[in-house]
Amino acid sequence: MCIGRCSRFVGIILVFLALVSIAASTFLLFPNLTVTYLWRGLITRQAFQLPGLWGGGIMVLLAAIQIITAGSKINWFGCYGSCWHMFLSILLSVMALFGSVLCFAISAGGLLNGPLCLYNVLLPNRTKIQLWDYPFAGFDNMAFNNSVPNYLEDRSLWDSVCIEPSGVVVWNIHFFSILLVISTLEIFLSLIQIINGFFGCLCGLCDEKSVTSS
């Protein structure tokens, strides 16, 4: 595949992935499409950080637009020459790579720690109370000693531990998993464009040569 065509192909896919990432990150703020928990600030920490909006979304989207521009030989802002566009696409691809890595790391943390939810806690004196916290977090709370490890492997815990929001465990698992898959693809495509842009700076767009020769 020619360098220009490869850039256009990568850029178009990155645009799609960035838009899906923004949507998935937004849905994490509204468990079961309810705004009540967002108003009360009872949203999972990693979801509230919106990694798919700025990391896997906006940063990737800005890079994708420039990558498509470089591959299409569109001259903006008075900048001419495929080498300049390819060099700029490399810089923005590095930015997209950084944003995708952060999105992956934060989403992985949200998936491993589980959601913030209301659940029953058994105190040392056998008194049962309800608490808003992270019942699936990997560390043991010495005061309550109620953490539940490996919840991802035990589906029976998904609907039996969290009282509110209803179905938040499945909701978080689905959308954080989507963000993990998307950010992985974005990392891969960003690396491809960095390599592609490097050859574009050295050799130019090969479709330019084909047009010239014809």
UniProtKB/TrEMBL annotation:
Gene Ontology CC terms, in alphabetical order: membrane
Main localization category: membrane
Record field: transmembrane: 12-33, 53-74, 86-112, 173-192
Keyword Transmembrane assigned: yes
Membrane topology (UniProt): Multi-pass membrane protein
Iron found in the keyword field: no
InterPro entries for this protein: L6_membrane
UniProt superkingdom: Eukaryota
Subcellular localization: Membrane
Pfam families, alphabetized: L6_membrane
Keywords: Membrane, Transmembrane, Transmembrane helix
Family classification: Belongs to the L6 tetraspanin family.
PANTHER family given in the database record: TRANSMEMBRANE 4 L6 FAMILY MEMBER 1-RELATED, TRANSMEMBRANE 4 L6 FAMILY MEMBER 19
UniProt-recorded name of the protein: Transmembrane 4 L6 family member 19
Gene designation: TM4SF19
